[in-house]
Amino acid sequence: MGNALKFYNSYLELGEEFFERVLPQKVPLPQLLLWNKALADDLLITKDLQEDHALLAQYSTGNILPEGANSIALAYSGHQFGHFNPNLGDGRAHLLGEMIDTSGVRRDVQLKGSGQTAFSRRGDGKCALAPAVREYIMSEALYALNVPTSRCLAVASTGELINRGLAKPGAVVTRVAASHLRVGSFQYFAARGNTKALHKLVNYAIDRHFPEINNRLLSEKNSHQHDEKQRILMFLESALDKQITLIIEWLRIGFIHGVMNTDNTAICGETIDFGPCAMMGTYNNEAVFSSIDEYGRYAFGNQGKIAHWNMARLADCLIPLLNVILEEDDEKSNNEEDALAQVERIIHQYTPKFDEAYYAMYASKIGLNKVNSDIKELITELLSIMQSHALDYTQTFYQLTKSLTDTETELNEAVGEWHSAWRKQLQYCGVSLIEAETLMRLKNPVVIPRNHHVESILSRCEQAILDNKSENSENISIISSIVDEFLQVLRSPYQEISATKNYQDLPEDDDQYYQTFCGT
After folding, report:
1. Which residue, 169, 163, 167, is CA-closest to 27?
2. Which of the four, 66, 222, 444, 454, has the lowest number of CB atoms within 10 Å?
3. Considering only CA atoms, which of 138, 130, 33 is closest in space to residue 451?
4. With bands split at pLDDT 50, 70 and 90, how would you rate the model's confidence at 334?
5. Reduced to 3 DSSP states, what percent helix, strand and coil does the chain have, rounded to the nearest 5?
6. Residue 506: which region, alpha, beta or left (left: phi > 0; alpha: psi -120 to 50)?
7. Which of 108, 124, 263, 392 is catalytic?
8. 323: buried, middle or exposed (CB in 10 Å: 19+, 13-18, 0-12)?
9. Which residues pair with residue 107 across a beta bridge?
10. Active site residue 263
11. Ordered alpha helix ranges (H), 80-160
12. 14-36 residue pLDDT tens
């Protein structure tokens, strides 16, 4: 983020109604704690700047804005646990702009925990250290697990103590995402009846995330009205497909987001906002760890249904826009009914698409590259066994993978009869044990960021900052020493390295009393 780097500000071109211009709040003692060198290299951040920790600390807290950055807070609405709030927006985040990575992809660079904005309501706009480090660890873990996700470039402490019931050290996260467009971004303008702004937002989203839509329409000879209608419908379908891909990857690794509100649903299909997230240990379709999800709305097994519901809310936003487009076509009558039918057709595609991807994913986790009724039954039976016998999700698939070529692998006796049927199915499908194992090793991690290890790391980081209050302390060395081994293991989730065994153990209490919090 230095003068040698180019910042872009395409979101500013949408207009002032899409954001608030606001600067991050100054902090008294910025110190760089965690720096993501691999991501920095991908963003073409120069070596000289990467070695200047003092300047990076200033940039990473917002005390100094890099040249070309324009600090804004984005406006959006959102359904929070099913209840609509028309006025949310970035209450503790500042979008600095975009950078182009080595692949030519435009990436948002945003500070989170950087102070109040017009959208803060009663919040202080700050972030405590533990949630900041959690986001860094979990986003890096998901990235290594091949799950679409935003990432963290840096975590910097602020030198402040903030009130979270107890005094907690403050921090700012530098988040990098394909964009911060959310379902709630569209809801913001739909709630205000502003179809002109909605149209601009759809066009921006297509240009940025789904350029193939424009390319496809350019190859077809359609009327202007038909072009626009098709672009909007294709956008909805593309966004829906992205959500299916994302949720299936969450389910594959046992990830529970914890707060799938529409303002946390990114149009680009990346995981965003890691506040109350957790990993499932013992398989339980109803697993919930978020302290604010008292009715289990966002339980592990509900995530696919909620994504469907969230996409329906996006569709709601597009109907008024389609009505306007259809009014320009004199041949159309009953515009509202026609627009509704068009979006319903796409939303109704969600369930069969999701089910197909769901079974294909689980088939790959047991070494099969196709799905039929017998394989679906095999998958359903395995999950039922895991649920009824309280088997660990990651360990069960890890042991099944090893069992194909290691006859001494200890499998839970509950899967005994199922194991025989599985081996017969592999043989029936013409899949060798080596072929099955190869596929399974790509899909089944040997290690995940288990909740008890994450919490241990967070507690140690927090205590280290509280204990070490010297202005000249090298806190980056202290925090890095705490998280480095864990991150090294998490960045190699499909291969065992020397330290992997230190993080494969199961929690003593089976996460029975574990709770996560939103961190605001």
Report:
1. 169
2. 222
3. 138
4. low
5. 50, 15, 35
6. beta
7. 263
8. middle
9. 99
10. yes
11. 129-144
12. 999 999 999 999 999 999 999 99
